[in-house]
Amino acid sequence: MNQKLLIFTDLDGSLLDHDTYSAEPALPLLHELQAQGHKIIPTTSKTESEVRHLKKSFDIKAPFVIENGAAVFLPADEFADFRDSLPVDGFYHQSFCEEASHWRRLIDSLATAFTGCFRRFSTFTTDEIMTATGLDKASAARAADRQYGEPVQWFGDEKAKIRFAAALINQGANVLEGGRFLHVSGKVSKGRALQWLEAAYSAREPETVFTTIAIGDSKNDVAMLEAADYALVIKSPVHPPPEIKREDSVFYSTLCGPAGWAEGMQSIITTIKDEAARETI
Where is the chain membrane-spanning (predicted)? Predict the structure, then answer.
């Protein structure tokens, strides 16, 4: 029976360096795994525009998940019978929540109660996005092209942040904390997207055994770190690791960003091979 890895990887702070956005230390192993037929699946808070650009830059050929699980994009040549409709720019897509305008209205409804505590990402100019994120101008413009959710820059204290999140959740939103922003969207998560995509692959290739790996460094990665067969928590230079409940098959990198990605993935691959060898004895 065939065996394949579905590797769901966060981008910022995980595959990409937190400050430079470089993936260089991880690319040799990434391309080796891809050449072996495994799937490298960007699973991120980033936008469709951002991920499409990065996929081309890194030559990643796989589905991708945007805006913390709000939508999954499937390569049309791999999922040819997924939809009756025509693909857009080579991909079909499946969305799981309302569009961004809905969440912006909810956030704005809290402006008076939380005066001076936050600012919506869509009100930033391109130059302000560059300052807040360290992105270059073209990348900042792609980051602004959000379809399903709204990042929020938080200025208030922790107690106010908890009340703010609770008020949004009471109105049907989901609030996730990333490395730089709070992310407000629907009841979506990277974990649900992982499970949906694993099921889609299993239905298409019933003769293949798929093993899922989730890689992340922030609180918004917890759902997929809990859902995968193996979890890799990447060391962050700016915040403590996310708290996860599981204890089995969890790996923690000692290096940050893409260097930690390569370090941790190599450990997981070795473990998978050792476990397979023991099963054949």
Answer: none
Q: Tell the residue number behind the tokens 């997929």, with chain if given.
A: 224
Its pTM stands at 0.88
Rounded alpha-carbon distances, angstroms, from residue 192 to 72, 202, 211: 11, 15, 16
From 39-43, 139-143, 219-223, 273-277, the region with the lowest mean pLDDT: 273-277
Give the chain's radius of gyration (CA, Å). Answer: 19
2-96+189-280: CATH, from 3.40.50.1000, 3.30.70.240, 3.40.1350.10, 3.30.70.330 = 3.40.50.1000
Amino acid occupying residue 52: R
Read off the amino acid at residue 100. A
Q: Where are the beta strands (DSSP E) in the chain?
A: 2-9, 39-42, 64-66, 71-75, 91-95, 118-120, 150-154, 174-177, 182-185, 208-216, 230-235, 250-256
